Amino acid sequence: MDSAAITALLKKNFALDPQTAKVLVVGLGDTGISVAHYLQDLGFKFAIIDSRAQPPMMDEFSQQMPDTPVFTGGFDEAAFKVATHLVVSPGVSLNEQAIVKAIANGSKIVSDIDLFACSVDVPIVAISGSNGKSTVTTMFGEMAKAAGMEVGVGGNLGTPALDLLALNARLYVLELSSFQLERTSALNAAAATVLNVSADHLDRHADLAEYAREKQRVFRGDGVMIINVDDPVVDAMRDDPRNTVTFSINKKADFHLAFEGDTEYLMHNESRLMPLAELPLEGRHNAANALAALALGVAVGLDEQIMCDVLRKFKGLSHRMQRVAEIRGVTWVNDSKATNIGACVAALQGYARKVILIAGGDAKGADMNELAPVIKEKAKSVVLMGKDAALIKQALNGCVPVYSADNMAEAVQIAAGLADVGESVLLSPACASLDQYKNYQDRGEKFTKAVLALVDRTATSKTPTVVPPLMAAI
Question: What is the pTM of this model?
Fold first, then answer.
């Protein structure tokens, strides 16, 4: 779309006029910088504010846009008072006092996703959910590329949405978080899905119901709804007049699993697509991810066999059920991306044999009691670490042996002593990482490093590795 057409839509939808609007971009991170470039290209007057004294991107931004006003070190209400529009980065809560006051005084909230939606006239596929959205977004992006489409993939994952506009793609695939969706009103995706809903970000959302309502905003518009009928919260989001495609790993749906003889297949209605065994991803929940990607692809006209060929080669993403090593018959799996209860539960449910679970971190206000039933069923023992380890221990109430660790290297050493041949050690924390690590990637890398150190010790040892006596259960 040309700039005149984009500007016309911004005026129509948000009264956002380059001649009169004064835009305040809140947050100087990747999203904030992408918004700044977008506004500059369209000729808007804008400033940036960040609560941090020295935002990580400050030096880079100052070189790129030296004339742009930037306020740091707090949310000065004077900056908000003159703003007609606020573009608030997802990492900033809308409940900040300065933002609440600005909205009450007439400032309009516009998200980067709103700006993006007003700037493209090609299909958008939107993917949200508590767990699996990065996997499905990447998986579907690979399917579209294999089908010969010029595709842009990003949003909450990787490249900020507005930076994708430079690609002039024929299809855009966006991963969208609840924080992005809560401030978005202009999105009308050609196909959209909420993969699942489980307790997450309850430190920012009032309760699970509010969190689910924000997720449901991905379905605004008139595109195809891709519904997971295994999740009752998602299934309740159906809008009967809308074109709806369903998927399930537990029951009959448009896309589902079914046995024919001894072989289990991914199915589209009555048609076999591929044997489940050919999907090279750990965990049964990844079968649900694959079915969701297939449903999205069919909704926008991708060839099913091309999509299945992609699935056969798709190895998954780092820190998401990533097999790190097999050491003396024990498999080590990095699922550090499991930053909430639902992700940990999904990972555990993918195992037929009980695992040694490494968990813990910042629970973000979630009720850890929800972990107990699946840990009792699927875990042989648990090694806990991090800020809310005691909350998890209390929730488990002795249903499995629990051990404590001060750091990842210690947790891995304890798990090595607990695991027998044929078992798996799973890092799936059910918590955020920022209490001890830079992010979940850093946590996963520390796990991988500790596991590979076991490999090195095993390779250089002529006798079996001696694991120190187990720590006393917490």
Answer: 0.79
C-alpha closest to that of 286 among 331, 375, 356, 349: 349
- Whether 468 maps to a domain, the answer reads no
Residue 264, classed as helix, strand or coil, is: strand
Q: What sign for the dihedral angle of Cα 199, 201, 203, 208?
A: negative
Give the number of domains in the chain: 3
Residue 465 lies in a domain: no
In angstroms, the Cα distances linking 65 to 59, 62, 84, 89, 104 are 10, 5, 21, 19, 31
Catalytic residues: 133, 156, 201
Q: Where are any strands of DSSP class E within 164-251?
A: 171-175, 191-194, 224-228, 244-247
Identify whether the C-beta of residue 465 lies closer than 8 Å to the C-beta of residue 454.
Answer: yes
Report if residue 192 sits inside a domain: yes
The candidate with the shortest Cα–Cα distance to 132, out of 99, 164, 156, 107, is 156
Residue 470 located in a structural domain? no
Of 270, 218, 156, nearest to 227 by C-alpha is: 218
CA dist., res. 4 & res. 21, Å (int):
16
> Which residues pair with residue 427 across a beta bridge?
334, 358
| Residue type for position 285 | H
Q: Where are the alpha helices (DSSP H) in 52-107?
A: 58-64, 77-81, 97-104
Residues 6+ apart with CB under 8 A from 133: 127, 156, 157, 175, 176, 195
Residue 467, both tokens = 């694991």
Cα 267 → chain centroid: 26
Q: Print pLDDT tens along the chain (474 aa).
A: 899 999 999 999 999 999 999 999 999 999 999 999 999 999 999 999 999 999 988 988 999 999 999 999 999 989 999 999 999 999 899 999 999 999 999 999 999 999 999 999 999 999 999 888 999 999 999 999 999 999 999 999 889 999 999 999 999 999 999 899 999 999 999 999 999 998 655 556 558 888 899 999 999 999 999 999 999 999 999 998 899 999 999 999 999 999 999 999 999 999 999 999 999 887 788 999 999 999 999 999 999 999 999 999 998 777 888 888 899 999 999 999 899 898 899 889 888 889 999 999 999 888 899 899 999 999 999 999 999 999 999 999 999 999 999 999 999 999 999 999 999 999 999 999 999 999 999 999 999 999 999 976 655 554 334 333 333 333
Containing structural domain, residue 62: 3-110
